[in-house]
Amino acid sequence: MALETSTWLNLCYVEKILRKSENDNSIQVIDIFSKPATVKGDNYTSDMIRITVEYSRDSKIKEKKSIIVKLSPLLEGVRQKIVTQAGFFHTEMSMMSDTLNKMNKLLGSKHRLSAKILYAQNENPVLLVIEDLASLGFQMADRLSGLDLDHSILALHRLAMFHAASVALCEKEPKQKEMYTKGIFSNQHPPDIKEIFIKSMKALADESVNWPEVKKYSEKIAKLADHIFQIGLNASQLCEDEFNVINHGDCHVNNMLFKYDNNGKPTDQIFVDFQISVYASPALDLLYFLNSSISLDIIEYKRDVLLNEYLDTLTTTMKLLNCKTQPPTMKELKATLKRRASFGMITSFVILPFMLCSKAEAKDLDEILSTGTYINAGLKSESYKKILIKRLPLYDEWGLLDL
């Protein structure tokens, strides 16, 4: 990874970034050390490099700093084509250099939603340079076991603040709503994205035949496959007369980092990866998070607790930010979650297997899509099977498996 980029990602380039981001032309870079910042299974639509920089200011004291370079895929393949044609990096640049800056200012430094952007480059190679949150004590939670109650509540408090700040910002600058119109489902996306959903569904139908408890649903899943993208489009559609926010858009455990106290209790949380942010109902982020990231017993027994925590924080924060818009009532929130329930179902079918794929078996998108057969090891995980055995009868009862 570092080798492919070494020709241009050198001392001069890093020096230029630091001078610009710190507004200090006396900075001189002495040395840089780079390594991949993520492993397979943690990140699918970009390449991440962690660079440790040794530098001095005014030719004096030596300093050290860690930064993250997030690159649009450099290697040709399906992944590069998807990311480029869907404009994922354009969305993230806009979020990080404009929208999130303003949302963070509204909330104040105590409740930061995202890392600081240090530099953005819109031509070849397309990239973002971001502060390294690991050096501030943030780390990933364990995606394989699903988040416990403490992690889930913390994440939903911060998500509610994210949504509230977006409402306040959109009231001040209505044009922000028009900047985020695509999200995960859009007719403007390249056909390859639709293919991922279709292939995922077909693979799930093939796999669920082997699960005696829910085998009877596999035929319905197979029939849904060709329609799944349209179902997603319908479920995520913007209704102007509803309560709407700028959604994170890819709101799962891999895109959240946590800080812990000495007893291992999570004390702070921050978001990363804003490539599919979208202005729509907050039900999208909530359904995505609830169906992709939380441990089975918490989602089963504490769903109302979680929704209460979210809505309380949303309401309080909107009041603090003097929003004119009214937050939803619990009745309205539950109604929109029910109306868009198929979005949660699609998350369970397509996104959750990625979350539950062990690190040893994780593959990148090119490997998953280029062989002709769609292989996602997460579909075969015991924990995935256990969750789907619980959820499939519910989806069927709600009529979501019928065309």
UniProtKB/TrEMBL annotation:
This is CHK kinase-like domain-containing protein. Residues 128-320 form the CHK kinase-like domain. It comes from Atta cephalotes (Leafcutter ant). InterPro entries: CHK_kinase-like (IPR015897), EcKL (IPR004119), Kinase-like_dom_sf (IPR011009). It comes from the Eukaryota. Pfam families: EcKL. SMART domains: CHK. PANTHER family: CHK KINASE-LIKE DOMAIN-CONTAINING PROTEIN-RELATED, PROTEIN KINASE-LIKE DOMAIN-CONTAINING.
